[in-house]
Write a structure and sequence with these properties.
Strand content: under 5%
Number of strands: 0
Largest sheet: none
Number of helices: 16
Structural class: mainly alpha
Helix content: over 70%
Order of helices and strands: HHHHHHHHHHHHHHHH
């Protein structure tokens, strides 16, 4: 009976992570269409779209350490269940939103409740032993990856019925999972191990400050910062660019998102090790990041739909540069600092998810206005930005990281 309960709880955690990813993915194809109901002007709608993406990422950036700290104090179960029921109600509010402000508030709340992966990871850590911990964290990553593949396809398919339909679907899934969790989820953190909230740990910038003040970490994190900035460009402008440039409908946008997510998962999961083994870490990062530069400029220059699909494979292979650099930098950090390093990398990724949507959508809105199209003829300017960001990354890596410095073992302040 105990083993069955543990398996049911693990399934609940995996479904929760899956739904977090679905919630992120289903919004990408349909949010521009929903915003156009409130903002008929295309340029203004694109700019607001970027704001909506950024505020979601900002809320996750703020909420992740908060939810983690609250789960250390009150237990994992109540925080996870509260996040689910909050998300379910919030999706209903967004589906029924009568104006832009209600939709915006809903987006804020969805960012807060969508940060539950921190607590889900803590639950898995609580209930794992050395022999199965790595495998269970692999399942979490797989669940998130599958959710991000399913989400855009579901959003695009249901969005053809109505831009509000995907929000109803997300509400139903989250509320159903809340019911499942209320029945099967057992608390994983005993009362004896709970601790008071340490307010210094609520600061999401804490680990970033450590990283940029530590010489051995500073430049690798700087390069990752630019790679992550570029990496958010496709997700930010894909839906609006493909509609404006090629006239794609919501279903095709959603399916192309899912195809990109699937190709990304295959490339990073199956090709990283063979490529690094063949090229070595340093050459792999340099060559793959250089390939990213070319792919971004090619995406920005493409003038037919088939070119976009042809570029998905090399784009996904080039994206291996980020995980390769992440694995490389772990070699200069001692075992007692690995948690701090990984938290820093996640923080950098979250921060760039706030910045890129604001910049990329503003750039798209400007260069796709009639006057700018006539003057410059660069509708793919946001992809060119991605290429320039990767160019900064590869030049910095070439100059600063040809030989990474010695191992860091001092504890951060």
């Amino acid at each position: 009976m105990e083993q069955k309960s543990t398996k049911a709880s693990l399934w609940f955690i995996l479904v929760t992570v899956f739904l977090d990813a679905v919630g992120i993915g289903l919004v990408f194809p349909i949010l521009p269409a929903l915003l156009s109901e409130f903002i008929p002007d295309g340029t203004a709608s694109t700019q607001i779209y970027g704001l909506f993406l950024s505020v979601y990422a900002l809320m996750q950036f703020i909420a992740s350490p908060m939810l983690g700290a609250l789960s250390d104090r009150f237990g994992r179960r109540p925080i996870l269940l509260a996040s689910l029921i909050g998300a379910g109600i919030d999706y209903i509010v967004m589906a029924l939103a009568p104006n832009l402000w209600i939709l915006f508030i809903g987006r804020v709340v969805s960012g807060l409740t969508g940060a539950s992966m921190t607590v889900a990871s803590a639950y898995v850590s609580d209930t794992s032993v050395d022999s199965n911990r790595a495998g269970r964290f692999g399942l979490i990553n797989a669940a998130f990856g599958v959710g991000f593949i399913v989400g855009p396809a579901l959003g695009g398919y249901l969005g053809e019925i109505s831009p509000r339909a995907p929000f109803f679907a997300a509400a139903f899934m989250n509320l159903a999972n809340f019911g499942f969790g209320a029945l099967v989820l057992r608390e994983s953190l005993p009362l004896a191990l709970r601790r008071a909230v340490a307010f210094k740990n609520l600061n999401p910038f804490r680990s970033l400050r450590w990283a940029f003040s530590t010489p051995a970490i500073k430049w690798p994190v700087f390069v990752l910062f630019f790679l992550f900035l570029a990496g958010h460009v496709p997700g930010t402008i894909w839906a609006i660019y493909m509609k404006d440039r090629f006239g794609w409908d919501l279903k095709l946008i959603g399916l192309s998102f899912s195809a990109y997510g699937l190709a990304l998962a295959i490339a990073q999961g199956g090709l990283t090790q063979p490529i690094v083994k063949f090229l070595g870490n340093t050459r792999a990062v340099l060559m793959l990041t250089s390939l990213e530069v070319l792919c971004y400029f090619a995406l920005g220059s493409a003038n037919q739909s088939w070119m976009i699909f042809a570029l998905l494979i090399p784009m996904c292979i080039a994206s291996i540069s980020g995980p390769t650099l992440q694995s490389q930098v772990t070699a200069v950090v001692a075992p007692d600092m690995q948690g701090e390093l990984q938290g820093t990398i996640i923080g950098v990724m979250s921060l760039t998810a706030i910045i890129t949507p604001l910049v990329a959508t503003q750039l798209h809105a400007y260069f796709n206005s009639p006057a700018a199209l006539a003057a410059y003829g660069m509708p793919g300017a946001s992809f060119f930005l991605g290429g320039l960001l990767c160019l900064v990354a590869v030049i910095t890596y070439k100059i600063k990281l040809r030989n990474l410095p010695q191992v860091v073992s001092a504890q951060p302040s």
